[in-house]
């Protein structure tokens, strides 16, 4: 049995359901706001990229490295397309949130070199967005990515320093010598 065949804990399922609701509401709100402010079909690129990155974020448990790399590539392509076509700048707020979930999760779970590569990729995507435009959307994306880097790294350190729970349970049942 591999990791993909194991049943997921209830907490992980509930977290993904909540995250999916946040993603769906955020995508709907962002699409509405882009339609209202930019008009036309300016919202299409943001919608496609946000749905793609958020779907990958929800698949992070099954394919953590592949999902993170695919989202980084999609976000980098979206930045280039939005600059070239004169569209609203990417990554949008919901795309940045999905990307942050993937980067933070990768920093926590993946082996050191892969985690470092994904973290560097996240930084590169945000820096390239900031170089393309110094606006509020890219500033928000930078803050979200900083939060992901700090949280993912912090949880990685916490997981390594936390005593094993199984050991604590057996130690609590053992009488003192």
Automatic annotation (TrEMBL):
Stretches that traverse the bilayer: 12-34, 40-59, 66-85, 138-158
Keyword list, A-Z: Membrane, Transmembrane, Transmembrane helix
The protein's name in its UniProt record: Metal transporter
């Amino acid at each position: 049995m591999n990791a993909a065949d194991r049943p997921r804990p209830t907490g992980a399922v509930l977290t993904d359901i909540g995250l999916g609701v946040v993603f769906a509401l955020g995508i709907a709100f962002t699409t509405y706001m882009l339609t209202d402010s930019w008009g036309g079909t300016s919202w299409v690129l943001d919608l496609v990229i946000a749905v793609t990155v958020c779907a990958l974020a929800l698949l992070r448990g099954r394919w953590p490295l592949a999902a993170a790399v695919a989202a980084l590539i999609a976000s980098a392509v979206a930045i280039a397309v939005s600059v070239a076509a004169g569209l609203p700048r990417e990554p949008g707020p919901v795309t940045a949130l999905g990307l942050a979930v993937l980067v933070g999760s990768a920093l926590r779970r993946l082996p050191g070199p892969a985690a470092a590569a994904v973290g560097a990729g996240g930084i590169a995507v945000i820096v390239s967005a900031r170089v393309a435009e110094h606006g509020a959307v890219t500033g928000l994306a930078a803050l979200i990515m900083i939060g992901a880097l700090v949280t993912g790294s912090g949880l990685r350190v916490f997981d390594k320093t936390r005593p094993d729970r199984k050991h604590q349970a057996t130690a609590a049942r053992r009488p003192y010598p």
